[in-house]
Design goal:
The chain is α+β, with helices and mostly antiparallel strands. Strand 4 and strand 5 form a beta hairpin. It contains 4 helices and 5 strands, in the order αβαβαβαββ.
Length: about 130
């Protein structure tokens, strides 16, 4: 069993490195296209479901978002957005011990917000300011 886990881990590492190389290439080109948020989120959840089929992801599209989504356009890089969402979902799954994770898409006056909520152990309050620093 340990050998199978090792093979799986190496496969995941190789896939992550290949994906990172793809992302790095996209960053240098500064690709900015119109993004369909719903399609991008659904693609991410589908990919994540294949990667971690035991994890339940609850998608919530708020009424505000669904009623107004045809009235706005978002530009960016769908591949980078999927990468970020996949990484956050992966952490949410890992540290919440496979409890359900919620991904909510909402619309503010000038923003689309994507909120991922899990039931994990969380980050100690004293360390919150250091989350984005190495």
């Amino acid at each position: 069993m340990g050998r199978l886990a090792d093979i799986f881990w190496k496969k995941e590492l190789a896939n992550s490195l290949l994906h990172l190389a793809e992302v790095e290439g996209l960053q240098s080109a500064r690709v900015r296209d119109e993004i369909n948020i719903v399609d991008t989120v659904l693609d991410t959840i589908t990919y994540f479901g294949e990667k971690r089929p035991e994890q339940q992801i609850d998608l919530v599209l708020t009424d505000t978002f669904t009623q107004q989504s045809s009235n706005f356009r978002i530009f960016g890089n769908a591949t980078l957005l999927r990468t970020v969402l996949t990484n956050i979902l992966d952490n949410a799954s890992k540290y919440s011990f496979h409890e359900p994770v919620e991904l909510k898409v909402d619309l503010e006056p000038s923003w689309v917000t994507i909120t991922i909520t899990d039931l994990g152990i969380g980050i100690p309050g004293a360390e919150l300011n250091d989350v984005f620093y190495l």
